[in-house]
Specification:
The chain is an alpha+beta fold and about 240 residues long. The protein contains 10 helices and 5 strands, in the order αααββαβαααααββα.
C-alpha cells in the first residue's frame, strides 16, 4: 500500500489551489488512477550512487532545483518553448520503461509545440545501456541520443552488447573500440550517477518515474507506465486545451 507523507499532501494541496475546480478534479482523478498502476523497485545503494547523491546535495547547499532543465546537459525531445515539460527517470532494463517510452513519444508527437520530454538515467537493471546512451548523447548530440534510445527500447529485452555497438556505429562511431572507450569513460559514468542521485533526492524509488512540470513551475508526479490516455488527459488540461 502506498502511504502519502504529510509534506506530499501539503504540496498537492498547494498545487491544486491554483487550478479551477474542474481542472483539479480531472487531474486528481487521473493521478489517483495512475497510483494504482505503480510498480516500485528499491534503489541499488552502490557507493558510487551514494557519493553522487552527497556531492549534489553539498554543491547545491540543499537548494538545487532538481527539476530545472538544462539544454546543454539534458537530452530533450519536443517543443523548444514548452508549456509542459515531462522529466522522465528511466532504465533500459525495465519492462515498464520499454512500454512507457512510446507513450511519451506519442505525446510529444501530438503536442509538438507544447510538450518537451527530458530523459534522465535511473538504471537498476541495465547500467551498460545507460552508459552507452549517455556516451552517444555526449558525443553525437540530442538527436542521436533519441534515435539510439528508440532503437534500444525497440530491442527490449534483448539489448545485448552487440546491439549497443551496432546501433552506435550506425549513428557515427568510427569503431567498436572508439565506442567502448567512450562508454567506459569517467565523464559518462559521472553523468549517469548524477542522474540517479537526483532521482534519489526527489524520492524516486522505481522506474519509470516522471515529473510533469508546467511553465509556472507546478509539478505533478507520474509513477509507473502511465497509459497514453491518462497522460494525454493531464497534458491537455495543463496546456489549456480542455
Amino acid at each position: 500500500m502506498h502511504i502519502m507523507h504529510e509534506e506530499n499532501k501539503n504540496h498537492i494541496k498547494k498545487v491544486f489551489s491554483g487550478l479551477t475546480t474542474q481542472k483539479a478534479i480531472i487531474i486528481a482523478g487521473a493521478l489517483i488512477a495512475i497510483s494504482i498502476l505503480v510498480s516500485q523497485i528499491f534503489f541499488n545503494r552502490s557507493s558510487a550512487l551514494t557519493d553522487a547523491t552527497n556531492r549534489i546535495a553539498e554543491e547545491s547547499g540543499g537548494a538545487k532545483l532538481l527539476y530545472e532543465v538544462d539544454d546543454k546537459e539534458d537530452f530533450i525531445r519536443g517543443a523548444k518553448r514548452p508549456k509542459v515539460t515531462i522529466v522522465e527517470f528511466s532504465d533500459f532494463g525495465c519492462g515498464f520503461c520499454a512500454s512507457f517510452h512510446p507513450t511519451l513519444r506519442d505525446i510529444v508527437e501530438k503536442y509538438p509545440d507544447d510538450v518537451a520530454w527530458v530523459y534522465r538515467h535511473l538504471p537498476y537493471r541495465n547500467n551498460e545501456a545507460a552508459l552507452a546512451s549517455e556516451c552517444v548523447g555526449q558525443r553525437l548530440g540530442d538527436e542521436a541520443f533519441w534515435q539510439y534510445s528508440d532503437a534500444l527500447f525497440a530491442e527490449f529485452p534483448d539489448i545485448t552488447n552487440d546491439i549497443l555497438v551496432q546501433e552506435a556505429l550506425k549513428l557515427g562511431f568510427s569503431s567498436e573500440e572508439d565506442f567502448w572507450e567512450c562508454q567506459g569513460s569517467e565523464e559518462v559514468a559521472k553523468a549517469v550517477q548524477e542522474n540517479a542521485a537526483e532521482a534519489r533526492l526527489i524520492g524516486a524509488n522505481g522506474t519509470p518515474h516522471s515529473i510533469v512540470i508546467t511553465s509556472d513551475g507546478e509539478t505533478f508526479p507520474l509513477r509507473g507506465a502511465t497509459p497514453f490516455a491518462q497522460v494525454d488527459q493531464i497534458v491537455s488540461v495543463l496546456i489549456g486545451k480542455k
